[in-house]
């Protein structure tokens, strides 16, 4: 214990120094070695409750180490990271390391009932993984119920010592983690939404680093501010940790240059606004090259679905030039209209990898998954209270019209220990019915918008070269869905509007972005490619939390390959029990 906290302090205070350097491997080939780290960094996460006062109310929220947002995990590329999570709260918890590819460490991935059972109150679990060939901006978040509404924090991974950024070194960097604040317990909120059969209420506020900003009630002084020196360039690490909303961000009078998306470098892209779906991270450079003043940073809604209710008040922070008078007039930030799909698609189309590695040009596994919402027939008692979805039905969501149901012990344990009866391996590789997905709603059969329900996985042979088309449907309403894949980054080789048509789709096999979350365009499609070379069970789901609760999810099982470097190790001894 003592030793742990000493090491943590040492590592925290020396972000760019290696704490230990037991480099015990030589790189022989691509994956022909264990993904052990150059250095090891220890963290201790105490999950506990703390009082916060926001929007005129004080209440208890679950956080980590009494911080909100939670502590930043710092590391360098190839470091080994060990985080002991101690659950001192009254609720189940797991932590997911979003964007970390978890090479040969699926047991530490964190989604509840997928790779582990939850850490129960009073229990602990130690996550252990390597930032293997990864650097940039990531985040960690709870992966149980809607707990990530308050349990989240940034992960910042620097390049190896002596390796520069592929852009001029910024004067300073700041992390902006975007969220949604709910004036109620988020775990109860999920239960209430599911029990109602209807949609979720809007968040009570959008927040930047936990601060709603002055437009919200009782929040005049509850804002986030970056103090800048005129003429200097700043690196902003933007993270969307919101539960249910995609968000636009902008800084008044300042352009942003995107240099990294989902912790992989991109060719520089100059933008006025940026849209982040939950689960997306971007690094942008901002030059303080405007007249000395106080500029707003604004965070507001992007909502591409029809007839949805959402929070429409922007969260405001400040980009404050030194020398600007405290009371000087503020330059207002302009956000796009909430449904401005053009800006979203032009940003996406402009996203290009800086360097491309491991892009499979030949494909041996072709998959096609539809994504969207469903309305199930009301089969509940007390329909007035429990079937509040459209037309007196119950909201659901699905991939290939299958709504995912979590099993009672984790899929990874069921798979590894060959326990029967917890899942089936028949998740379809293509939709069971082909129709006009975008315009042909209601879905399969006229007026039948029901989905199938089940715990189905799709099995991939080790090393499969996969192309997956993600196709939005108009079953209930077309909508941009941020689809996140665990265990991999993927190459976004194409996207477009309407139904995917292989004859006309233009694919970029030159410099596609390498990301882990793709905002599939509203009423459109995205084509992604990856090599299934990481054995384990990997969740793929919409990162809008309510869609995941409704079943917009599935899991891949990636089989072992040959030999120890292609085989999932045995589970850690302290893996929580259900
Ligand atoms: Cu950040 Cu399964 O999610």
TrEMBL record:
One annotated GO biological process: lignin catabolic process
Annotated cofactor note: Binds 4 Cu cations per monomer.
CDD domains, alphabetized: CuRO_1_LCC_plant (cd13849), CuRO_2_LCC_plant (cd13875), CuRO_3_LCC_plant (cd13897)
Name of the protein in its database record: Laccase
Catalytic activity: 4 hydroquinone + O2 = 4 benzosemiquinone + 2 H2O
One MF annotation (Gene Ontology) recorded for this entry: hydroquinone:oxygen oxidoreductase activity
InterPro entries: Cu-oxidase-like_N, Cu-oxidase_2nd, Cu-oxidase_C, Cu-oxidase_fam, Cu_oxidase_CS, Cu_oxidase_Cu_BS, Cupredoxin, CuRO_1_LCC
């Amino acid at each position: 214990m003592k030793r742990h906290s000493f090491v943590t302090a040492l590592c925290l205070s020396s972000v760019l120094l290696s704490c230990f350097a037991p480099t015990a491997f030589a790189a022989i080939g691509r994956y022909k070695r264990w993904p052990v780290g150059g250095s090891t960094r220890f963290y201790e996460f105490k999950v506990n409750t703390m009082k916060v006062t926001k929007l005129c109310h004080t209440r208890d929220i679950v956080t980590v180490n009494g911080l909100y947002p939670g502590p930043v995990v710092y590391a360098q590329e190839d470091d080994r990271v060990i985080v002991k999570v101690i659950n001192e709260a009254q609720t189940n918890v797991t932590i997911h390391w979003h964007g970390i590819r978890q090479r040969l460490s699926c047991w530490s991935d964190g989604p509840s009932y997928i790779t582990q059972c939850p850490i129960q109150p009073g229990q602990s679990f130690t996550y252990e993984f390597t930032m293997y060939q990864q650097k940039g901006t990531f985040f960690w978040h709870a992966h149980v119920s809607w707990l990530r509404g308050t349990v989240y924090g940034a992960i910042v991974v620097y390049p190896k010592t002596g390796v520069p950024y592929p852009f001029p070194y910024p004067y300073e960097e700041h992390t902006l983690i975007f969220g949604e604040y709910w004036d109620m317990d988020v775990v109860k909120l999920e239960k209430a939404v599911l029990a109602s059969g209807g949609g979720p209420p809007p968040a009570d506020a959008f927040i930047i680093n936990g601060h709603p900003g002055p437009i919200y009630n009782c929040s005049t002084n509850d804002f986030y501010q970056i103090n800048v020196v005129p003429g200097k360039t700043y690196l902003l690490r933007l993270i969307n940790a919101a539960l249910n909303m995609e968000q636009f961000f902008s800084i008044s009078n300042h352009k942003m240059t995107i240099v990294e998306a989902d912790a992989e470098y991109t060719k520089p892209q100059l933008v006025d606004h940026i849209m982040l779906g939950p689960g997306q991270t971007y690094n942008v450079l901002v030059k303080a090259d405007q007249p000395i003043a106080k500029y707003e940073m604004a965070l507001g809604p992007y909502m591409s679905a029809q007839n949805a209710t959402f929070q429409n008040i922007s969260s405001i922070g400040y980009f404050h030039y030194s020398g600007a008078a405290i009371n000087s007039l503020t330059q207002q930030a302009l956000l796009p209209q909430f449904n401005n799909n053009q800006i979203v698609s032009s940003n996406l189309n402009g996203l290009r990898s800086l360097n491309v590695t491991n892009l499979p040009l030949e494909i041996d596994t072709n998959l096609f998954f539809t994504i969207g919402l469903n309305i199930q027939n009301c089969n509940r008692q007390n329909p007035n209270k429990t079937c509040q979805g459209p037309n007196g039905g119950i909201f659901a969501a699905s991939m290939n019209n299958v709504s995912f149901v979590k099993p009672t012990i984790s899929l990874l344990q069921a798979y590894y220990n060959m326990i029967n009866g917890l899942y089936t391996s028949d998740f379809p590789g293509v939709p069971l019915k082909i129709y006009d997905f975008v315009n042909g709603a209601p879905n399969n059969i006229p007026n039948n918008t029901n989905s199938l329900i089940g715990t189905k996985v799709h099995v991939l042979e080790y090393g499969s070269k996969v192309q997956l088309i993600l196709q939005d449907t108009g079953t209930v309403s077309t909508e941009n869905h941020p689809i996140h894949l665990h265990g991999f980054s993927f190459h976004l080789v194409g996207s477009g509007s309407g139904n995917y048509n292989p004859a006309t789709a233009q694919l970029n096999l030159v410099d596609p972005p390498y990301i882990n979350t793709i905002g599939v365009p509203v009423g459109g499609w995205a084509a992604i490619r990856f090599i299934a070379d990481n054995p384990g069970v990997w969740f793929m789901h919409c990162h809008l939390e309510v869609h995941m609760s409704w079943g917009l999810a599935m899991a891949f099982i990636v089989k072992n390959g040959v030999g120890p470097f292609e085989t999932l190790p045995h589970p850690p001894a302290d893996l929580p029990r259900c």
